[in-house]
Amino acid sequence: MELDGKEKLAVKELGNAVNTAIEQSLVVSEAIDQIRRMGFEPNLNLKLEIGLQELEEEFVEPQEEIELDFTDEDLKTLRRMKIKVED
């Protein structure tokens, strides 16, 4: 799908918003500080992929649950960020 300038800007703004939310998160900041107090400098790399799908004429909430497959490394990273994943 080709994005026009307005759509590209909207996606970029979303990415910036997510980055800002992480940077300003007290939970993330406290977790980083805790690691620093232990004598380590954390190096956190997150990969954000934003995919767009055109909506049909009327948006309908999905009726089925979405199942996500996390790797052990994904779960480890989420736990470090104090993000709980429900089974």
What gyration radius follows from the Cα positions, in whole Å?
17 Å
The number of helical runs is 3
Overall body shape: extended
Which class of secondary structure composition applies to the elements?
mainly alpha
Listing every helix as H and every strand as E from the N terminus to the C terminus, the arrangement reads: HHH
Percent range for helical residues?
40-55%
Number of DSSP strands? 0
Mean pLDDT: 82
Write a concise synopsis of the structure shown.
The chain has 87 residues and is mainly alpha-helical. It has helices at 5-24, 26-37, 72-80. The chain is 47% helix and 0% strand.
Structure, described:
This protein has a domain at about 1-55. It contains 3 helices and no strands. About 45% of the residues lie in helices and about 0% in strands. It has helices at about 5-25, 25-35, 70-80. It is mainly α and about 90 residues long. The longest helix has 20 residues, at about 5-25.
